[in-house]
Amino acid sequence: MSFAKVTNLRDGLAIPTVGLGTWQQRDKSLMKQLVKDAIKVGYRHIDTATVYTNEDAIGDALSEVFADSSFGLSRSDIWVTSKLSPSDQGYESAITAVKRSLEKLKLSYIDMYLIHWPGTSRLPLQDPQHKVNRTGSWKALEELKSQGLIRAIGVSNYQISHLNEMKEYATVMPYVNQCEFHPLLFTKELVLHTQSMGIAFEAYSSLGEGNLVNGNYKFPVLDQIASKHNASLAQVLLCWGIQHGAIVLPKASSVGRLAQNYECQKITLSDEDMSAIDNISSQQTKRFCWDPTEIL
């Protein structure tokens, strides 16, 4: 589609700027249909993770898509991201986990694989073993990338300290840092720092886990901007993220909502709109997902 945007990563890789988020989509038959519906709408980027427990369903859906000539798509047309579970941190565990993800996804390579969390499951927040383990995980991802099993490697939920620390041990710096990002968690310093390191910023929970569109948190300025652009609240929030340079990963379960979210790429917010949305975080802040800021 002519309006579809891409974000350029290093090494000539380009990732579709709007991807399909699949967290909380665990029903296998529904997940398979969702992937097919999303691809029909125009999505070419699927984001999953080991902890989502839906890699096998996504793999089944993609296998069927590639085998169905009516889609007219091959493996290289779809960008697939998965992530390392916090329980799989460490060199050996990470290698095993990636190979398990490849098997479930039924793919010969994964476009991008992220360390999902800077910490390791069941360790105290300030345990120095977190750094030891994520260093080992990163070495494993670098190795698997060199073998062609992963095209791009990255991190998720990393804060500025975690990114800076990587300069000590990374031979290849992350291509992406995926974090919670929406107007109630406008982490401008983290976004700019990530981008200054040549790392693309990827946003999850752009709609505040639905709270910014379902009436739980209401901000008249969002309604006003949506009305002005004849857009949905979700489209405005996604567009705001994109115009801050983020890759966005909206979730949806209906074809109509999938299409509406995808068409956020047709909208351009003015500088005035952007500033007004940026200002929401000066009134109220809220993190809806897990908090990585205390992980040593």
Automatic annotation (TrEMBL):
Which ranges carry the NADP-dependent oxidoreductase domain? 18-280
The residues listed in the UniProt record as binding substrate, with positions renumbered to this chain, are H116
Q: What InterPro entries would the database entry show?
A: AKR, Aldo/ket_reductase_CS, NAD(P)_OxRdtase_dom_sf, NADP_OxRdtase_dom
Classification via PROSITE patterns: ALDOKETO_REDUCTASE_1 (PS00798), ALDOKETO_REDUCTASE_2 (PS00062)
Taxonomic source organism: Smittium mucronatum
SUPFAM superfamilies hit by this protein: NAD(P)-linked oxidoreductase
Show the active-site residues: Y52
Q: What is this protein called?
A: Prostaglandin F synthase
**What are the transmembrane regions?**
none
* Assigned keywords, A-Z: NADP, Oxidoreductase
Instruction: Please give the family membership noted in the entry.
Output: Belongs to the aldo/keto reductase family.
Query: What does the record give under GO molecular function?
Result: oxidoreductase activity, acting on the CH-OH group of donors, NAD or NADP as acceptor
Q: Which residues does the UniProt site feature Lowers pKa of active site Tyr point to?
A: K83
